Amino acid sequence: MEKTIRLTVDFHNPSHLAMFVLSVGALVVPLTMLCYVGLQAVLGQAYNTFDQNPQFPVDQEHFSQSSNNAYSSEIYSVGHHQVLSNHRKVYNQFAASLFQNLHEGICNPDNSTASQLTRDKNVIPVHSHNDYWRTLPVFDAFSNGMNSIEADIWLKNDPTNDGAMTLLVGHNEPYLQPQHSVENLYLKMLNNLLDEVNCVGEIPSSDFRKNGFFYNDPHTTTYLYIDIKTESTETYKVFIRTVVENTTLIKNGYLTYFDFSKKELVWGPLTLVITGNVPTEFIFKEEIDDPFNLNKRISFVDAQLINLDNIKSNNDSISVIGSGSLNEIVGTTGIKSFGGLNEEELSTMKKVVEEAHNLNIKVRIWDTPNWPVQIRDMVWKQLLELNVDYLNVDDLSDARKF
């Protein structure tokens, strides 16, 4: 026969309350310690695995596991009994193991870093929002098949270089780090990835179509959004000069551009999109003034989907992709139904998508719900059915599974 024991606690009685607190503490503390010991064991093993074998993994599954383990070591370094202040050490270890073909002068695109990242991963219509927050900027997105990434840039004095101007990457100004420049985190990495798959120095650079980043779709372009956070015109000028002077992205024919002489849009494996504080008037006048002496425009304005009038007469020469907030477009402050967008909202979104596509402008939608997951997934499904080209996503693994 089963017996039920009931414990009645009078919370107004100090002795009862004290006994209750002690009892709960006696249960919670051991459980907490057990979880902590287990966490230490897991993270310690993760750190030691990465520390002992920092070589770049060949298959994507290994890459995903290694990048997750690397992130764990950012939180605890149990084997070394210290807490890492940030994941710079992990990132540097990872970066040092890249581009072996390039460093050794080997022409083998099939064994390139990009190939190892993206092999057997089809490109999916996802934008890696705030990509620089990820454990491995650029690489986490690419390993999940995502060909749209984003970097927020700030024009700042570089204290390590006699106060010269530099472009730092970060979401909030107080947390910017001198070593986290757009050149180091993005431009050089992307440049090196493309150099490896195009065998720079082995094949004449101008007579063939350039390979892109993705093994299964080498001729698809990748969008690099540059979100300007400081004064628009000067920041933009410094960014373009950085691309021109400090990379070979133009020289090696990797960038999408608009040819001023031929009035022609030429696609490349990398497309630069300017968003945030956009110097629209300056960019509009580039075709007349040619301030960088390129005879072409190598960047494109992120069109505002709720106001496409500014680019209707320029389309290809100014914008190739546009963005819009779900809230601004359909006029809702939140999706309240598990059915997602209602008929009126779907109709409004459809018109916006069709208008953009008629101008040869791809569509990216941000500000979609993140939770509950059922609503998020339903809205994602509805947007893709309306031919939205890119979903703005924070959780890359969930988007990949979707």
UniProtKB/TrEMBL annotation:
<dbReference type="GO" id="GO:0008081">
    <property type="term" value="F:phosphoric diester hydrolase activity"/>
</dbReference>
<protein>
    <recommendedName>
        <fullName>Altered inheritance of mitochondria protein 6</fullName>
    </recommendedName>
</protein>
<feature type="transmembrane region" description="Helical">
    <location>
        <begin position="17"/>
        <end position="39"/>
    </location>
</feature>
<keyword id="KW-1133">Transmembrane helix</keyword>
<keyword id="KW-0732">Signal</keyword>
<dbReference type="InterPro" id="IPR051236">
    <property type="entry name" value="HAT_RTT109-like"/>
</dbReference>
<keyword id="KW-0472">Membrane</keyword>
<comment type="similarity">
    <text>Belongs to the AIM6 family.</text>
</comment>
<dbReference type="GO" id="GO:0006629">
    <property type="term" value="P:lipid metabolic process"/>
</dbReference>
<dbReference type="InterPro" id="IPR017946">
    <property type="entry name" value="PLC-like_Pdiesterase_TIM-brl"/>
</dbReference>
<keyword id="KW-0812">Transmembrane</keyword>
